[in-house]
């Protein structure tokens, strides 16, 4: 287990290194001089040279990367070009709403997927199976931003059950915050549920086909008891992996979903920054987003190894 | 759709099988398997319909998609405007029909671009191994860590707007999956006796890759491509929805949905109808992709 932990952590560090190089390279490919952008319209040549030296832009590209990396490792993402706020502060403030949307969506997704996946597997080939799998493909294929608009139209404009836009931290005002997250979480979570339901169905079918299940069946264990007591726990293991693999997709979907619902998250921050050419924010937001994905993947892999001892030796 | 698949892919799938089936016979057998899959046939029909719509957009669209004031603003569906009009009084149906062009072109070209780059990297990494492999695949691991839409957003920030840039931005996110799939299969194929024999006969590396390795890893690559087009279209629509896609007044489904958001109370059709077009396209492509996966590459079946 320790060896697995070490090698997996090593891989993660390698990925993070590559990610940092990719982001650094992308930011250097942006046309225009960042020093000019930071100075604004009114400056002297001396001020330009001073800032340029201060930022290290007169050094070699490798040194520039190392300076940049050192700052980032120290948690310094720089300042916004426009209003000179700390980027780390802005990104953190935007990350929390996005993360709560992702977590709420996972909850909704699993709540929908587990029952529909089980029903589909237990009555394989029935109308239930076709219906729930058809529904899964359907919701999986709906672009999240459009689904959100349709939900707003039905539940906010017509039924007036939910506010159309706005966000409150659920940990500051639980009911208000959760209530406002319901529609966004359904929007993003149903996408996730379509995927998870399909996985639960196929992994449950696979488990139900195993010898130990057949043996239990032959001993006269009832089918429902079989599924809940014996098969489900094993069928859920692949689901853990999917949660890890899909965290990035969910984060990407959250960027779009929060735009629909006016949630002040990473998507809003990044798009506004792109339109303002405030690349310090763009870079910080992308860095933190990818870091979150990599860390969640590592955590899920370790959990998976813990749940399934066979993988540990790999 | 069936044409490029017949001749090359199927015989290649089982190169060592005794009495390999003739191209035409294998294609017929593949089609029979495909035709039994109702979802896949439905998906194929939807895909062909969208392709026809895009090809004949100038004939099918009743109005010019960018001319304003062809009807009253934000009017719901009527006989004159089947899908209603948007806030500029443009005909929605015409915009949706033309929007199919952007969606398909971006989706297909982006995937082809990603396929060419990713497959080349995967072939080189898998065949040569060693340091080349390590460097290429570590970069792919890094790219893979980015959620596709976030990578596309970053690319748009770097490159600026325009259809060509959207295609590149979308493509970058799909390179890593192609490289990974290709490399994994190359590792298996390169141990085959016929590759060994070619190597001993003094055939050069690139020639072996082109003549012996590539044809034998093509099936999973084609399946992968078919499965990715829908994702590419969703990514493009997402960019357009965020306002980072092709600039207005280009008729793009994602931007149409975004524009309609402001009129959701008085004119819900402006946002909802383009979304239906997008969703039908995605459902069709997903079903078609699943069908190709199940009939071409049974190993990937879930």
Task: Please outline the helices and strands.
The complex is a heterodimer of chains A (314) and B (302).
Chain A: H1 2-29, H2 34-39, H3 45-55, H4 61-73, H5 87-122, H6 127-141, H7 144-158, H8 174-208, H9 211-218, H10 223-235, H11 237-260, H12 266-275, H13 279-307
Helix pairs in contact in A: 1-13, 5-6, 5-8, 5-11, 5-12, 5-13, 6-8, 7-8, 7-11, 8-10, 8-11, 11-13, 12-13
Chain B: H1 3-13, H2 23-36, H3 38-55, H4 57-60, H5 92-128, H6 130-145, H7 148-159, H8 163-189, H9 193-200, H10 205-241, H11 253-260, H12 269-296
- Ranges of chain B where pLDDT stays below 50 over 5 or more residues in a row are 1-21
Extract low-pLDDT stretches of chain A. Answer: none
Structural class of chain B: mainly alpha
Radius of gyration of chain B: 22 Å
**C-alpha end-to-end distance of chain A:** 10 Å
Residues in helix, % of chain B: over 70%
Please give the number of β-strands of chain A.
0
Distance between the termini of chain B: 23 Å
In DSSP terms, counting alpha (H) and pi (I) runs of 4 or more, how many helices of chain B? 12
Can you describe this structure?
The complex is a heterodimer of chains A (314) and B (302). Chain A is mainly alpha-helical. Chain A is built from 13 helices and no strands. Chain A has helices spanning 2-29, 34-39, 45-55, 61-73, 87-122, 127-141, 144-158, 174-208, 211-218, 223-235, 237-260, 266-275, 279-307. The longest helix of chain A has 36 residues, at 87-122. Chain B has 302 residues and is mostly helical. The longest helix of chain B is centred in the middle third of the chain and has 37 residues, at 92-128. In chain B, α1 (3-13) packs across α10 (205-241), α7 crosses α8 and α9 (193-200) packs across α10. At the A-B interface, α1, α6, α7, α8 and α11 of A face α6, α7, α10, α11 and α12 of B.
């Amino acid at each position: 287990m320790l060896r697995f932990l070490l090698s997996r952590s090593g891989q993660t560090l390698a990925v993070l290194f590559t990610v940092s190089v990719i982001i650094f390279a992308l930011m250097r490919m942006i046309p225009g001089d960042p020093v000019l952008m930071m100075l604004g319209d009114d400056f002297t040549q001396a001020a330009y040279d001073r800032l340029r030296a201060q930022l290290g832009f007169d050094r070699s590209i490798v040194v520039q990367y190392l300076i940049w990396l050192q700052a980032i490792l120290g948690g310094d993402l720089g300042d916004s070009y426009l209003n000179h706020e700390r980027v780390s502060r802005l990104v953190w403030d935007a990350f929390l709403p996005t993360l709560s949307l992702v977590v709420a969506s996972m909850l909704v997704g699993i709540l929908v997927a587990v029952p529909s996946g089980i029903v589909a597997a237990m009555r394989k080939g029935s109308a239930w199976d076709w219906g729930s799998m058809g529904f899964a493909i359907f919701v999986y294929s709906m672009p999240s931003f459009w689904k959100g608009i349709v939900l707003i139209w039905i539940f906010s404009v017509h039924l007036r059950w939910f506010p159309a836009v706005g966000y409150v931290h659920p940990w500051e005002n639980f009911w208000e915050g959760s209530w406002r997250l319901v529609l966004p979480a359904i929007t993003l979570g149903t996408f996730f549920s379509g995927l998870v339901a399909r996985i639960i169905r196929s992994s449950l079918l696979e488990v139900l086909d195993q010898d130990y299940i057949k043996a239990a069946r032959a001993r006269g264990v009832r089918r429902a008891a079989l599924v809940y007591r014996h098969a489900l726990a094993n069928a859920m293991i692949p689901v853990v992996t999917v949660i890890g693999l899909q965290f990035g997709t969910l984060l990407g979907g959250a960027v779009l979903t929060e735009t629909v619902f006016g949630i002040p998250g990473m998507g809003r921050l990044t798009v506004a920054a792109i339109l303002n050419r405030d690349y310090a924010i763009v870079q910080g937001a992308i860095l933190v987003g990818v870091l979150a994905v990599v860390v969640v993947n590592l955590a899920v892999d370790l959990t998976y190894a813990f749940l399934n001892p066979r993988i540990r030796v790999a | 759709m069936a044409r490029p698949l017949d001749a090359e892919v199927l015989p290649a799938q089982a190169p060592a099988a005794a009495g390999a089936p003739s191209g035409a016979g294998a294609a017929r057998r593949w089609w029979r398997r495909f035709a039994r899959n109702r979802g896949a046939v439905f998906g194929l029909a939807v895909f062909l319909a969208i392709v026809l719509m895009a090809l004949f957009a100038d004939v099918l669209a009743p109005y010019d998609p960018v001319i304003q004031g062809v009807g009253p603003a934000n009017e719901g569906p009527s006989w004159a405007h089947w899908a209603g009009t948007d806030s500029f009084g443009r005909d929605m149906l015409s915009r949706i029909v033309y929007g199919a062009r952007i969606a398909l072109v971006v989706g297909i070209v982006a995937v082809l671009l990603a396929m060419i780059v990713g497959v080349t990297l995967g072939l080189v990494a898998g065949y040569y191994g060693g340091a080349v492999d390590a460097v290429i695949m570590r970069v792919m691991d890094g790219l893979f860590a980015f959620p596709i839409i976030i990578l596309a957003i970053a690319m748009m920030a770097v490159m600026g707007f325009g259809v060509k840039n959207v295609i590149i931005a979308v493509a970058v996110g799909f390179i890593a999956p192609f490289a990974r799939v290709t490399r994994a299969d190359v590792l298996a194929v390169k141990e085959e006796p016929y590759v060994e024999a070619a190597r001993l006969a003094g055939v050069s590396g690139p020639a072996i890759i082109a003549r012996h390795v590539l044809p034998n890893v093509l099936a999973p690559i084609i399946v992968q491509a078919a499965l990715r087009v829908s994702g590419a279209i969703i990514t493009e629509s997402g960019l357009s929805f965020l306002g980072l896609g092709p600039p207005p007044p280009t008729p793009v489904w994602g931007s149409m949905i975004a524009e309609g958001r402001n009129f959701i109370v008085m004119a819900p059709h402006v946002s909802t109808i383009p979304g239906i077009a997008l969703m039908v396209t995605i459902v069709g492509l997903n079903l078609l992709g699943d069908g190709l996966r199940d009939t071409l590459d049974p190993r990937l079946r879930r």
